[in-house]
């Protein structure tokens, strides 16, 4: 009983630290938060899978136990580790690209989102009604004001 309680306290601590880091503005801290939460979930799956037992291979006995270990939990954790590493690589690529574009590693508030969130219901409806619709004939590959590349205005 004490070992399960210790594991559950460790899982809770990892999860809470991961959520705290995930709510930060720095992309690297967000990545560390995702990694901590995924490790906590992996530990939870191992804890919930039950006691250890014989390997899930026919005619193999390791500790003279009467029950076999559940192979599903091990397969789920291996899959979760691979997915977590893929997400970590993606977040690292986003952080690198963000740093190269803005030389800042923190996620900042978007001023346009802040302005739109302060609109009243009637102003938002009027803004949506007056918004120009997408015209595929007008879209070109030429740089315009919506491009995210710095210095695109001077290259025309």
Automatic annotation (TrEMBL):
Its main location: membrane. The keyword Transmembrane applies. The chain crosses the membrane at residues 6-23, 30-52, 72-96. Keywords: Cell membrane, Membrane, Transmembrane, Transmembrane helix. It comes from the Bacteria. It is a multi-pass membrane protein. Residues 107-156 are annotated as: Disordered. The keyword Ion transport does not apply. One of its GO terms (cellular component) is plasma membrane. Belongs to the CPA3 antiporters (TC 2.A.63) subunit C family. This is Putative monovalent cation/H+ antiporter subunit C. It comes from Mycolicibacterium thermoresistibile (strain ATCC 19527 / DSM 44167 / CIP 105390 / JCM 6362 / NCTC 10409 / 316) (Mycobacterium thermoresistibile). The lineage of its organism: Bacteria, Bacillati, Actinomycetota, Actinomycetes, Mycobacteriales.
């Amino acid at each position: 009983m004490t070992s399960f309680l210790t594991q559950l306290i460790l899982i809770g601590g990892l999860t809470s630290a991961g959520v705290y880091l995930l709510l930060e503005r720095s992309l690297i801290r967000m990545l560390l938060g995702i990694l901590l939460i995924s490790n906590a979930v992996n530990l939870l799956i191992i804890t919930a899978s039950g006691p250890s037992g014989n390997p899930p291979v026919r005619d193999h006995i390791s500790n003279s136990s009467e029950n076999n270990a559940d192979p599903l939990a091990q397969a789920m954790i291996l899959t979760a580790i691979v997915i977590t590493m893929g997400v970590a690589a993606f977040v690292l690529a986003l952080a690198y690209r963000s740093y190269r574009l803005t030389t800042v590693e923190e996620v900042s508030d978007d001023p346009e989102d802040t302005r739109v969130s302060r609109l009243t219901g009637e102003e938002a409806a009027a803004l949506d009604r007056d918004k120009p619709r997408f015209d595929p004939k007008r879209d070109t590959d030429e740089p315009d004001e919506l491009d995210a590349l710095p210095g695109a205005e001077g290259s025309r």
